[in-house]
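User: Some background: our group keeps a shared notebook of sequences we're curious about, and every so often someone picks one and asks for a predicted structure to add to the entry. Today it's my turn. The entry only has the sequence so far, pasted here. Could you supply the structure so I can complete it?
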Amino acid sequence: LTGFDTETDGLEPMRSQLVGLSFAFANEAVYVPVAHRYPDAPEQLGVHAALDLLKPWLESATHLKVGQNLKFDAHILANHGVTLAGIAHDTLLESYVYEGHERHDLDTLSRRHLGWETISYDAVTGKGASRISFAEVDIQRATAYAAEDADCTRQIHDVLFPRLCADEKLQYVYQHIELP
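Assistant: Of course. Here's the predicted structure to add to the notebook entry:
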């Protein structure tokens, strides 16, 4: 099971552009920058080349993925002709079923279930009038943020999913939610 996340230049799935993809495995999390643009930004593979290479894995039903709000990521990839498959779990939905009365954003889930203070989006992009697009974030800083998101998501799943499975009714509800 691999933690997976996309990074984009916005929050609107039909308009946002892919900037990078992050993956978390058992002992490692990585970020693949594809479209960062700022003065002196290093050369990157590019969106189309990266997706051409990753498409077999992204569209594979046998390569299981867990994410936080994978519906968004699926929309972003679909905009590029990639159909995300192998969606095994979504921590947003796990949290909603397990603790419907709580907040479900990744930062809050990390604090609540892992005791982990994550790098916030605002810390990376700024706030208000000084906010920059994620595409303008230095790749080193973007890597720390994005890889942490994928890793954190995978670890939250490792905490929440057994709790859902321990309750027959919650497990039934979660298993009958249609994932993207």
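Suggested note for the entry: The helical segments are 47-58, 70-78, 91-98, 106-114, 121-125, 139-165, 168-175. The mean pLDDT is 95.
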